[in-house]
Amino acid sequence: DHRDLHSFPTRRSSDLGPLNATGTLRGRSVLSWQKQDYFYHYANRDDRTIYNILEFNATPSTLLTAGVNYRRLHATPWLSGLSMYNDGSDPKFSRNTSFTQPWAYSNTETKEFFLGWDQKFYEHWTLKTNYDGSYRQFGNQMITTSGGINPDTGNFSAINGSATRGKSRANSWDTKLSGNYDIGEIGRASC
Description:
The chain is an all-beta fold. The protein contains no helices and 8 strands. It starts with 5 loop residues before the first strand and ends with a strand.
């Protein structure tokens, strides 16, 4: 008596191509959803992602980029293996046995966004500026077992529980100037 392994992966991506008559505005979109049940009790996973990006050539030498990425992961994980008896003998658990519980969960939600400016000027110079921001919230409530099982009582050596919740934010900004310059008779150098 066990549940079969079921997985429903769905992934769609689309190059939206030119979004205006001149072809200076382009886009790409990716949608992904994977829902999975496992053959052992209670464990499951539901993973969803949405990613979108736009590129705009404001001038022949100026590229602007903007995008967002969203991911939501909800799962009931099982992190422990099946223990043996303390004397090394096999308890002969059924194939669908796990020691996670229906109330266990591990959930994460991540929102990311980014902006970019790529500017070419003169003949061999490029200025690139990027901004990335992210917001993440997470929570989990899990139980794990470890060590052997007492063959007389059926008790585990250790049963541990944990629960965490948190949020985080991150922002980053970077600018890079690169190009070539003439250093006279020595030749051309890059930086």
